[in-house]
Design a protein that fits this description.
Number of helices: 9
Strand order of the largest sheet: 6-7-8-3-9-10
Shape: globular
Strand content: 25-35%
Number of strands: 14
Low-confidence stretches: none
Order of helices and strands: EEEHEEEHHHEHEHEEHEEEHEH
Length: 304
């Protein structure tokens, strides 16, 4: 479905995408993971036909994206990171508008829009202006808009960012259904659990290059597994933990650290917490999966 060869994109002195080559088979759910600034969105934008590469080629369904004209875009549905809807239109009119841009109009468009609004669970709100919707509702309409022309290949750039857990779970259900329908999906995300649960294949991108690729099982076999120490604390915010890849969740009052040797690391981390006068309430040691592989390969946390 997608073939990319030696894709290169520079912005003045900065190389955003540095010679990426990629193959995504028909029906595959491919997750593209990487830190902010790694080149994910630039890659998606080039595949979409919006941003021409400096060099390299992109083929979708056997057609060159930058030589085939509008015809190749009929195969693609784009769900951008930013909401691409008109706030002063209702959900139904938004879908009809985006459908018409892809040549879907009349009875076909109305039937398609009705089906999609029911599918995303917003049929009862279809006549309400989009500006009255929650963030999660807008995200669902954004996905529906990308499907009005029934594309075979759907590109999704962080479609669950910034929404509540209930809305995120609903979108997971929609994505699972799309994959079951045989759609090919290219998906970028900041949430490791999404990639682990949904993607049939994963690529890790950093500094504009694909640095690892494979199924979750293949990635685990290739890379040394580490463990995660999750400590729930009480009291004030503790100081940063030195010498470890740790994330602090002040709302949940937890510190999560990915380590290779649990014993010595746990002792050191607890000592650092005690020096910062944080009370340790609970310690949980987990076998880390994709997150540990990511940190091992990129040397930084996904949200940096």
């Amino acid at each position: 479905m997608l073939q990319i060869d030696e894709l290169l994109k520079r912005y003045q002195q900065h190389t955003a995408v540095n010679g990426i080559s990629l193959r995504i088979a028909k029906g595959e759910f491919y997750g593209l993971l990487g830190p902010n600034g790694a080149g994910k969105t630039t890659t998606i934008t080039m595949i979409s036909g919006i941003l021409p590469p400096d060099s390299g080629s992109i083929h979708v369904h056997g057609q060159n994206v930058y030589q085939s004209g509008p015809a190749v875009k009929q195969h693609m549905g784009i769900v951008p990171q930013e909401i691409a809807l008109y706030d002063d239109l209702n959900a139904l009119d938004n879908l009809l508008f985006w459908g018409k841009l892809y040549g879907v109009s009349g009875t076909t468009a109305k039937e398609r829009a009705a089906h999609l609004l029911n599918w995303i669970g917003l049929d009862d709100r279809k006549h309400d202006l989009v500006k009255t919707y929650s963030g999660g509702m807008k995200r669902r309409v954004n996905i529906a808009a990308s499907l009005m022309h029934n594309p075979e290949f759907v590109l999704m750039d962080e479609p669950t960012v910034g929404i509540d857990p209930q809305s995120r779970n609903k979108i997971y259900e929609l994505l699972a259904d799309l994959h079951a329908q045989g759609k090919t999906i290219l998906y970028t995300t900041h949430y490791m659990q999404e990639a682990e649960a949904m993607c049939s294949k994963i690529g890790i991108i950093d500094k504009g290059k694909i640095i690892a690729e494979g199924t979750l099982s293949e990635l685990k076999q290739k890379h040394v597994q580490m463990e995660k120490i999750v400590i729930r604390y009480q009291g004030d915010r503790p100081n940063d933990i030195n010498g470890y890849a740790c994330t602090l969740d002040e709302e949940a009052q937890t510190i999560s650290c990915v380590v290779q040797h649990t014993g010595a690391a746990l002792h050191d981390i607890v000592q650092q917490l005690q020096h910062s006068k944080a009370d340790v309430a609970h310690i949980d040691i987990q076998h880390a999966g994709l997150e540990s592989i990511f940190l091992q390969l990129t040397g930084r946390q996904l949200r940096d």
